[in-house]
Amino acid sequence: MAFKLPDLPYAFDALEPNIDARTMEIHHGKHHAGYTSKLNAAIEGTDLEGKKIEDILANVSKHSTAVRNNGGGYYNHCLFWEIMSPEGGEPSTQMNIRKAIDRDFGSYENFKDEFAKAAATRFGSGWAWLCVDGNDKLFITSTPNQDNPLMDVADKQGTPILGLDVWEHAYYLNYQNRRPDYIEAFFNVINWHEVTKRYNDANPGASSF
Ligand code: MN
Q1: What is the DSSP string of the chain?
Q2: pTM, to two decimals
Q3: Ligand 1 centre from 90 Cα, in Å?
Q4: Which residue, among 4, 188, 162, 171, has the nearest Cα to 85 in the 3D structure?
């Protein structure tokens, strides 16, 4: 069965003024749609057909560049839409993810600074990530192009639970070259309920808050 472009979980203009409707429309309908159809074309007739995207990415070094770029692009954008929401903001201190952030980064402000730095200093196109490792510890990393921390080629591997697209196509219409302003605005639209769900699912039973 072919991979399918998911619907956005909100309207194109739902994240305004932080992310504008036109950017969301092109990003989802052109860029994400393109990764999806090119991924399907790259795996058609191969033994990757029918496999889960996570399993394909875990062994991506064995596959073609088309599978790496478009498989990453497919997965990364699926995650990106889900971890944003018009009801964003700071995670409540009652959430497991907030407790883990405070534990592993000292404070939400420290986490925010470190994540923003990873996003701002990624040269060229790529992503910044908040991940959880096999010991239930959070870490921040960034990857080039459409790579991600699920890939066996990643410098630091783990389960991504929050990701920020810093390709120019994600912000250029509204922010032009001002990537730091886009990064700051992103913190207003993070769906912490989804991030905490992904955190809880990554190592079931591990967190004992
Ligand atoms: Mn993108």
Answers
A1: ----PPPPSS-TTTTTTTS-HHHHHHIIIIIIHHHHHHHHHHHTTSTTTT--HHHHHHTGGGS-HHHHHHHHHHHHHHHHHHTB-TT-SSPPTTSHHHHHHHHHHSSHHHHHHHHHHHHHHS-SSEEEEEEE-TTS-EEEEEEETT--TTSTT-SS--EEEEEEE-SGGGTHHHHTT-HHHHHHHHTTSB-HHHHHHHHHHHSTTT---
A2: 0.97
A3: 24
A4: 188
Distance 129 CA to ligand 1 centre (A): 14
169 C-alpha to ligand 1 centroid (Å): 6
C-alpha of residue 172 to centroid of ligand 1, in Å: 11
Task: For residue 31, report the distance from its CA to the centre of ligand 1, in Å.
Answer: 6
CA 170/CA 54 separation, integer angstroms:
23
Report CA(28)–ligand 1 centroid distance (Å).
8
Residue-wise pLDDT tens for the chain (209 aa)? Answer: 699 999 999 999 999 999 999 999 999 999 999 999 999 999 999 999 999 999 999 999 999 999 999 999 999 999 999 999 999 989 999 999 999 999 999 999 999 999 999 999 999 999 999 999 999 999 999 999 999 999 999 999 999 999 999 999 999 999 999 999 999 999 999 999 999 999 999 988 776 67
